[in-house]
């Protein structure tokens, strides 16, 4: 790291500490609540999202609840959504393929999927997802047939989105753990589709 990068990192850390101190001083949030929220975010990962997808694949009633109210459904599985924007879930099927992007910055369902992949935050991904989504997906090896509608979903500060991908053929009889193991962050963003290894 260069000296300017180090200086920027130190400045950002000082600013974060100052904001936390002010929030605690004004009794807006306690240091324990801040630590709790950080721990929750750090614990979230694409594996957690994969478990949610797997449950929806094997439990039609949960799938229905997940598509109707993503926040409430994932809370059933122990995911803490307190303080997080609402979670919307869109389903890929034979007639529509969804692709999630945050056109303004990097709004992402961190409470469910953890930190966003580096490419999700890039200006290139954000622009191409809107301008040339089929070309972008092709670079990921995802070919959306001409007859399948491609829908771009904008994740925002007010509402976060994830994709419920199609369950791959040949997974009948698989348990939730095995199903969850094949689901990646890309599948829940819509740039890839789950594949059997």
What does this structure look like?
Helices cover 48% and strands 11% of the residues. The protein has 2 domains: 38 residues; 145 residues, Nitrile Hydratase, Chain A (Alpha-Beta Complex). Helix 4 packs across helix 5. By secondary structure, the protein is mainly α. The chain has a two-stranded parallel ribbon. It has a two-stranded parallel sheet with strand order 2-3. The protein has 10 helices and 4 strands. The N and C termini lie far apart (38 Å).
Offer a few descriptive terms:
two-stranded parallel ribbon, mainly alpha, Nitrile Hydratase, Chain A, 197 residues, 2 domains, globular, two-stranded parallel sheet, single chain
In short:
The chain is mainly alpha-helical.
- Strands of the widest sheet, in order across it, are 1-4
Give the tally of structural domains. 2
Global geometry: globular
Q: From the alpha carbons, calculate the radius of gyration and give it in angstroms.
A: 19 Å
Strand tally is 4
Mean pLDDT, all residues:
92
Biggest pleated sheet: 2 strands, parallel
Question: What fold name stands as the CATH topology of the largest domain?
Answer: Nitrile Hydratase, Chain A
What is the string of SSEs from the N terminus onward? Answer: HHHHHEEHHHEEHH
Helix content: 40-55%
- Poorly predicted regions are none
Output the CATH class name of the largest domain. Alpha Beta
């Amino acid at each position: 790291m260069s000296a300017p990068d180090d200086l920027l990192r130190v400045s950002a850390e000082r600013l974060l500490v100052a904001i936390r101190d002010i929030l605690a001083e004004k009794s807006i949030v306690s240091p324990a609540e801040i630590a709790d929220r950080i721990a929750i975010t750090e614990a979230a990962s694409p594996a957690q999202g994969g478990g949610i997808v797997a449950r929806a694949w094997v439990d039609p009633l949960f799938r229905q609840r997940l598509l109707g109210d993503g926040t409430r459904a994932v809370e059933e599985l122990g995911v803490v959504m307190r303080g997080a924007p609402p979670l919307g879930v869109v389903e890929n099927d034979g007639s529509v393929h969804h692709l999630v992007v945050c056109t303004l910055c990097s709004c992402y369902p961190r409470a469910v999927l953890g930190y966003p992949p580096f490419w999700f935050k890039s200006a290139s991904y954000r622009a191409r997802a809107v301008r040339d989504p089929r070309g972008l997906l092709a670079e990921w090896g995802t070919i959306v047939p001409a007859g399948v509608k491609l829908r771009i979903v904008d994740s925002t500060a007010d509402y976060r989105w994830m994709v419920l991908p199609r369950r791959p053929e040949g997974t009948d009889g698989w348990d939730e753990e095995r199903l969850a193991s094949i689901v990646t962050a890309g599948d829940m963003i819509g740039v890839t589709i789950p594949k059997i290894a």
